[in-house]
Amino acid sequence: MTLTVSDLTVTIDGRAVVDGVSFTVPDGGRLGIIGESGSGKTLTALALTGLLPAAATATGSVTLDGRELLGASERELAQIRGDAIGMVFQEPRTALNPLRRIGRQMSEPLRLHYRLDRRQSRQAAVDLATRVGLPEPERIVDRYPHELSGGQRQRVGIAIAVACNPGLLIADEPTTALDVTVQAAILDLFDRLVAEQSSGLVFITHNLAVLARVCTDVVVMAGGRIIEAGPTARVVDAPEHPVTRGLVSAARATGLTPGEPGTEVTR
Ligand SMILES: Nc1ncnc2c1ncn2[C@@H]1O[C@H](COP(=O)(O)OP(=O)(O)OP(=O)(O)O)[C@@H](O)[C@H]1O
Q1: pTM, entire model
Q2: Burial code of 222-242, b = ≥16 C-beta within 10 A, e = fewer?
């Protein structure tokens, strides 16, 4: 699936918080959006899926395989979000329902799309748990979110996002709330799943080392605009904009060397 964003502008209270943003993610492409806090990354992601806050208005164009998403009806968008686009958020604790077993939550997108009975949906949940590397899949599906670690909860969030094999996965800071070793394992999981289902990826982060592990291309945002864009390897090796140079130094300071995508990832 090809995602094309053209001149996307998001306005809140008369202020353009996303300002004339354009980029393309080709079928199976892996684009990272990076920038400091408040640069407009999250609002860009929300605009792609029709989830902007009520106070925001979006203009420009967002197409998925030629189909315009900006201004699409809520019904159409709900269908696209379940089917064509999977989304993963930063804090899996708030994205999950604390009162429902995780198996039910993982199989919900499939139940909605394929009308599974109880036994089929339990099996689907176990299969998904296996696919995202949760331990003891047969047992873990009966647990509640608070009984899982942060990394396991994020695996559940990822399972929900990939349940219907979407052509595009959008992840907003999916590893930020996790500690470094768990972060690495979750990045490996993204890498594997995106490769397995040959879906595209839009990955939002403020950490260039994280981005470089999974994304071949990068867009750097500041003040709602794109200030630099290109292949990750080029941007890491020869950043042009001072903001990008700052992001490269910050990534190196964490001890994680930004490298070719996938080089540090065990498959
Ligand atoms: N609901 C809202 N109402 C008013 N302003 C908002 C709202 N959401 C975001 N903004 C403003 O829009 C700008 C861009 O926000 P956005 O969340 O997209 O940034 P971000 O790059 O994702 O930052 P972070 O990394 O901190 O999440 C910021 O100045 C923010 O204050």
Answers
A1: 0.91
A2: bebebbbbbebbebbeebeee
CA-based torsion, 129, 134, 137, 141: positive or negative: negative
Nearest protein Cα to ligand 1, atom 14: 40
pLDDT of residue 115: 84
Q: Report pLDDT for 43.
A: 95
Q: CB 249: neighbour CB atoms within 10 A?
A: 11
CA gap 244, 148 in Å, rounded: 36
Stretch (H or E) spanning 125: helix 118-131
pLDDT-flagged residues of the chain (< 70): 92-94, 255-267
Burial class of residue 3, CB neighbours in 10 A (0-12, 13-18, 19+):
buried
Residue nearest to atom 2 of ligand 1 (CA): 53
Can you give the pLDDT at residue 64?
96
Nearest CA to ligand 1 atom 26: 37
| Alpha carbon of 166 to ligand 1 centroid (Å) | 26
Q: Which residues of 138-147 are buried (b: 16+ CB within 10 A; e: fewer)?
A: eebbebebee
Q: What is the ipTM of this complex?
A: 0.90
pLDDT of residue 264: 41
